[in-house]
Amino acid sequence: MSEHRIPLIDIFGDNFSMGSQLGEARRDQVKHSIDNARRLLEDAHATLQLTWESAVIQARKYIPFAEERYPKLLEEMRGIAAGANVSFDDVAVVNAMEAVTMDALHLTKCTSMALAPERTTNGHVYVAHNEDWLPEDEPDLVIVRARPKDGPAFLAMTYGALLPNIGLNADGIAQCCDSVYPTDSRIGTPRLIVSRAVFDARSPAEAIRRTLSPQRAAGYNHLIAHESGELYNVEVSARRFAVLPSENGVIAHTNHYLHPTMQAVESEPDELIATRVRYFRAMRLLSLNECHKMDTIKAIQRDHVNYQDSICNHAQDEADPMDREKTITALLMDLTERRLFATWGNPCVNEYYQYDL
Q1: In terms of CB atoms within 10 Å, which end of the chain has fewer, N or C?
Q2: Are 11 and 144 in contact (CB under 8 A)?
Q3: Which domains does the chain have, with CATH numbers?
């Protein structure tokens, strides 16, 4: 097992200050992630017909909606740009990439899971997420421990110029995000900015409400967990949503819609086969133990059934820009203890390290 630990950055203050601290501390990684995004558009030009200059123009169409609804989070993005000495336009493109490309890349293959207290050996709430993305961005991973001037403290993962959106907060709310592919996307607030806003929630209902921002561009599946054991999948598109509760104290999600209302607006569902295998595999493995402990959850995150498109996902054709994603980090949260464990890279070959809020 490889032993290297994702860096931890402490940030505090107002949103601009927090963004500036993150950008300054991770200046090289922010610039690297922007360069990676540029290369991604170049490599996928035959599919997207999109240059970086065109992407900047497209991103500018989305920013006013975010500015109206989430001015503080736009300040956080401006802080990242100022701290890293890069342009705000470049940071905006990275944070709006899914919207700018109209989800044409289909690169994410994430898996999320959670367990209520009655399904864990110590009565704690556990939340797990495998983040699957391009291997080029793996070196830019960081764990952020934030103490905002307004709102609860939070502990979250991000990389490069992205706003953090997967983690937990001091009020016992955890969030994982899984990309889904609706057909009703529109110009509006980019979904990553919407998901960052969830960390300011202080209750499960407020967290769910925050995923349903008016005039959103599209949506993720937001796996929302609360320290009480309340677990929900909130499947979101631009105009629809569905809230699915846990079953027998467990819940999971991958990259396809589960609710019939949402399946009606799913893009090319016949192409989303591997995500269904991962979902049913995760649910089966969760059902094998009446009560789970951290080691059994880690074993699920390391699972290789349907390799290379497994829960522990491995890069396939390195020459194909549309098929190079892998698990760049596996996150395991003990929500009861406000604690996060993370691997730097695939969990099958990398150790988990502990981070405390």
Answers
A1: N
A2: yes
A3: 8-100 (1.10.10), 111-356 (3.60.60.10)
